[in-house]
Amino acid sequence: MRFLTDRKRAIGNGSAREGTVRHWNMTVSSYGLLVLTPLFLCVVGPLLGASYAEVTGTLGKPVPAIIVALTLWIGMMHFKNGVRVLIEDYVHGFARELWIIATVILSYAIAATGVFAVLKMAL
Amino acid sequence: MADVNRGNRPLSPHITIYRWPVTMLTSILVRITGNALAVSAFLVVWWLLAAATSETYFAYADAVITSFLGDVVMTLSVLGLWFHALGGVRHLIWDQAVALEKKTADMLSWASLIGSVVLTVITVALV
After folding, report:
1. One pLDDT digit (tens) per residue for chain B, 127 residues
2. How many CB pairs under 8 A join A and B?
3. Residue B17 falls within a domain, yes or no?
4. ipTM above 0.90, yes or no
5. How far apart are CA B64 and CA B62, in angstroms?
6. Which domain holds residue B96?
7. A77-122, pLDDT tens digit by residue?
8. Domain chopping of chain A, boundaries
């Protein structure tokens, strides 16, 4: 039984030959985030509802600052790759390109803003 | 060549037809939680930026994020975060080509559902 339709055969879309590296990138960031997530919750959790002095004080220390900045950065890169798969599944044509571009920009913007904020308090 | 294949392709029933297996429910939830967590990240980063900007602006952001609605959103974020993490662990296990039998896969999926609730309760209680 043939699985390709006439249309698919005519378009000629096959493997992009870059799927493995995408899967690998998600695997690496997953393992990283598994370590970082509990640490992140331990740092940020108690700070929600804490005073301004406590928040800036904690994030002024190297270890909490690195945990928060690293989690946000790796997390947003993980999101950038993950949301791309979502978009590729549901959006087609030029709209797909626009959505991917927008989410890539958003991912870097959130990551950079988070790291900037932490650095400003830490340095 | 045209239409040589018409009507002879395998078709699968879609989500409206059959009872959802738990693996399907958790697969969809992993995707939803993963993408929804961008909203949580946006809020936390906004709150961090406020803290880095000034005490006045921090008071404003902190009031929003610790309001009743803010508490609800943050608690749901923690639940989403834990569920996505456990669902991800399940995928990392499956990537090793183990635990893919139907019963084991179902069990892992239930474990990720229940585990995420338990971890959320622990997180909210402790931090």
Report:
1. 455 666 677 777 776 777 888 999 999 999 999 999 999 999 999 999 999 999 999 999 999 999 999 999 999 999 999 999 999 999 999 999 999 999 999 999 999 999 999 999 999 988 7
2. 100
3. no
4. no
5. 5
6. 22-126
7. 999 999 999 999 999 999 999 999 999 999 999 999 999 999 999 9
8. 20-122
CB–CB of A28/A78 below 8 Å?
A: no
Q: Which residues of B touch A (CB under 8 A)?
A: 1-5, 8-10, 31, 34-35, 37-38, 41-42, 44-45, 48-49, 51-52, 55, 58-59, 62, 65-66, 74, 78, 81, 85, 88-89, 91-92, 95, 123, 126-127
Q: Is A86 within 8 Å of chain B by CB?
A: yes
Of A6, A55, A82, the CB nearest to B34: A82
Structure tokens at B110: 């239930």
Helical H segments across A12-93, by residue range = 19-47, 52-59, 62-90
d(CA A74, CA B86): 17
Which residue in the set B9, B55, B74 is minimally distant from A3, CB to CB?
Answer: B9
Among A71, A106, A72, residue whose Cα is nearest residue A87: A106
A76 near B CB under 8 A: yes
Quick one: fold of A20-122?
Answer: 3 helical TM bundles of succinate and fumarate reductases (1.20.1300)
